[in-house]
Write a structure and sequence with these properties.
2 copies of one chain form a homodimer. The first copy, chain A, is an alpha/beta fold. Chain A contains 12 helices and 7 strands. In chain A, the strands form 2 sheets. Chain A has a 4-stranded parallel beta sheet with strand order 3-4-5-6. A 3-stranded parallel beta sheet of chain A has the order 2-1-7, covered by helices on one side. In chain A, helix 1 packs across helix 2. The longest helix of chain A has 15 residues. The first copy, chain A, is globular. In chain A, 51% of the residues are buried.
């Protein structure tokens, strides 16, 4: 049994107070809004600024969602860190909390590491967490991690841990890589990192998407996922693509947070942790103008 | 006052027991040997597998050195992590422990970050640590971090924090970058990352070196540093270069650890944390043969 996940997942953006500490209540409220829009919660993703958060902060944030009554069966937290003990601790906490799975970055400081070394790392995490409930989704994002997850490694992990290593998020942006994986591993749960690939990837068996802009247009992506075989799918794809294309012109995390701040009328969202920076005024007005021009707005975010 | 550091510093290799936990006692003993050979202790460097250690493990390891009676005035721990709270916590612990300085990686997950973002990060760390005793050495190692520390950022940090931001380690391996920095910042404490650059860098004002192979030949590097103007300096440079060149043919950390295991007759050293892997048997015999061929051995490591 694998209880494979599917659908649209948002790498939930993380709000910070002016002292840069995470705003736990706003995080839980926003996660609730995302779930209400049909999105699963890929908390602690790249777009969550997860790697700017300490282990202790991540545990507090996860616990806050559970305390808020959100269903861990729709949670896929990012738990991969550079240091094995950190990855084990957060993965174990996610499993103990009932999370449906974890999305695990490879250790990303050392470069040109061998597949033997990466296999040993994942094996060590799996053996230490030591739970039949662990569902591990690999995370291929070479532009940030510098450590690609190549097909022979995936094949080896599936062979050794068929009940545990059940899927992958492909953030390479490389269609050939995604298509090759979809064809090579038909039982594997594969998420592209952009809704713009859905019309091409779903016929090949993609499970949905885990996308930055799922923070912004979760319901529209959900409708496309529900209707991708219908006649109107082309128009729905074009609609979500238009929104995605606007955001892709800006530093993504800052743009997601500014847009959320704007539509929620809550400036807390317009804060990022260094080394990231917020959009400058000219970018903000331009982003809003571009969103207006395509008739986009987020609703239901205000108190 | 800056109390600038100088000389040879070893990014001290970190021993692991068979369960992959750090061997605190062996670490302290080895650090004592390095100090006895004249090396300062750049613990938690790249070659220390620092990014495979949790914050808690690093604090335990640092405390063990102090408990062992080693002088923090010759310690330059690496304290830079991706997450601001982790960097602040370890930096504050180092300052409170009396360490002469800290060597700080930039936050290294997010790429293409702006100098404004990096400046804000360092400024935030400095303001939070809030100690006049902090001496911060930047760490430029783009091949691993993916986040270069460029000259305009250095200039800006020196201008804002002249008593705090006092130096840099340049691990770019790019002579032009090193030479440019040495000429641009004459009062700055600049360490190249290899003893092989000493004869060229010392006349331009380099402070010494922080080098992987300072784990292996600390005394020989120290002699070169003491005699670089003497007639025999060329021969001394050639000698340390020969050793460095042997190690550079292998995965560096695994090679440093295997050589230390061999000369110390202690197999605990021949263990790395995943995602790194130990040398394979053929590499081990070849490395020893090459070291024998140049008459190299480490002495004084056995019980």
């Amino acid at each position: 049994m694998t209880n494979a996940l599917s659908g649209v997942f948002a790498p939930v953006i993380t709000p910070f107070k002016t002292d840069l500490s995470p705003d736990l209540s706003l995080f839980a409220k926003h996660a609730g809004w995302l779930m209400g829009q049909g999105a699963g919660l890929a908390i602690f993703g790249t777009n969550s600024e997860a790697n700017s958060l300490s282990l202790g902060e991540k545990i507090l944030l996860m616990d806050k969602l559970l305390e808020h009554g959100l269903d861990p069966a729709r949670m896929l937290p990012g738990t991969g860190a550079c240091a094995l003990p950190d990855t084990v601790a957060l993965t174990r906490h996610a499993v103990d909390s009932g999370c449906a799975g974890v999305l695990m970055l490879p250790p990303f400081f050392y470069k040109n590491v061998s597949d033997d070394g990466l296999f040993a790392y994942y094996a060590e995490v799996i053996e230490r967490v030591a739970s039949p409930d662990l569902r591990l989704y690999l995370y291929h994002i070479p532009a940030f991690s510098g450590v690609p997850i190549r097909l022979p490694l995936i094949e080896r992990l599936i062979r050794h841990y068929p009940e545990i290593v059940v899927g992958i998020k492909d953030s390479s942006g490389d269609w050939d890589n995604l298509e090759t994986m979809l064809k090579a591993f038909p039982g594997f749960t594969i998420f592209p990192a952009s809704e713009s690939l859905l019309s091409r990837a779903l016929p090949l068996g993609a499970a949905g998407c885990i996308s930055a802009t799922a923070n912004i247009q979760p319901a529209a992506i959900g409708r496309l996922l529900a209707s991708w075989k219908a006649p109107q799918a082309g128009a729905m794809q074009a609609q979500v693509d238009a929104v995605r294309q606007v955001f892709q012109q800006y530093p993504m995390i800052a743009a997601l947070k500014f847009a959320t701040a704007h539509y929620a009328d809550n400036q807390t969202w317009d804060m990022v942790r260094p080394p990231l920076t917020s959009l400058v005024a000219q970018q903000k007005s331009q982003l809003l103008a571009e969103l207006d021009a395509i008739g986009f707005a987020m609703a239901g975010l205000r108190d």
